[in-house]
Amino acid sequence: xxxxxxxxxxxxxxxxxxxxxxxxxxxxxxxxxxxxxxxxxxxxxxxxxxxxxxxxxxxxxxxxxxxxxxxxxxxxxxxxxxxxxxxxxxxxxxxxxxxxxxxxxxxxxxxxxxxxxxxxxxxxxxxxxxxxxxxxxxx
Length: 139
Hints:
This protein has helices at residues 3-10, 22-71, 75-79; strands at residues 85-92, 96-104, 111-122, 125-136. It is an alpha+beta fold. The termini are far apart.
């Protein structure tokens, strides 16, 4: 007999020890399920936040795009503008509705405050984003 076999055979089990029992197995399964559920909850929350972030980024882009169109207008356009008004017709995409309005700035009447507002639905809740830009009325 080899040395390892001798050592193995001489080891004695403590009284009442018969290996794993059902409760040990159930505790191990419970721990594994708890860890897996926690990780999957984090994964789902991350996916939701990524989707929300994507919608917010698209909304910001749409609002900025509409304000950039106004930036290209000549000074005479702003000087002759009757305020308050809707500057651009509302645009509708599959998910977003974009409106652009203008009014006189409350701090300086020589400035026009253009407001681009983007609205969309996130589940059953309405979300919106608003960007503002100031344009001079002096030609």
